[in-house]
Amino acid sequence: MRRVSPGPEEVNAKVLRLVHEPVNRAREHPPSDDRGHP
Predict the structure, then answer these.
(1) In angstroms, rounded to a whole number, what is the distance separating the alpha carbons of residues 38 and 28?
(2) Quick check: 25 and 34 in contact, CB under 8 A?
(3) Distance between CA atoms of 11 and 19, rounded to whole angstroms?
(4) Are the C-beta atoms of 25 and 33 separated by less than 8 Å?
(5) Which pLDDT belongs to residue 1?
(6) pTM, two decimal places
(7) Most CB atoms closer than 10 Å: which of 3, 6, 37, 38?
């Protein structure tokens, strides 16, 4: 990485990744399965 401070594109990519990963996981299997059954 040449730039010390992340550019807006890099920040947006990180944010989109953080936002979409949980959504995709929730779509694949309900959150109840993620947490495990008590």
Answers:
(1) 21
(2) yes
(3) 12
(4) no
(5) 53
(6) 0.38
(7) 6
In whole angstroms, what is the distance from residue 2 CA to residue 25 CA? 33
| Host H or E run for residue 15 | helix 8-28
Query: What are the tokens at 7?
Result: 């550019």
Residue 38 is encoded by which pair of tokens?
A: 């008590």
User: Which amino acid appears at position 21 of this protein?
Assistant: E
* pLDDT of the chain, 38 residues: tens digit per residue: 566 777 888 888 888 888 878 777 777 766 565 555 55
The string over 1-38, giving b where at least 16 C-beta atoms fall within 10 Å of a residue's C-beta and e elsewhere, is eeeeeeeeeeeeeeeeeeeeeeeeeeeeeeeeeeeeee
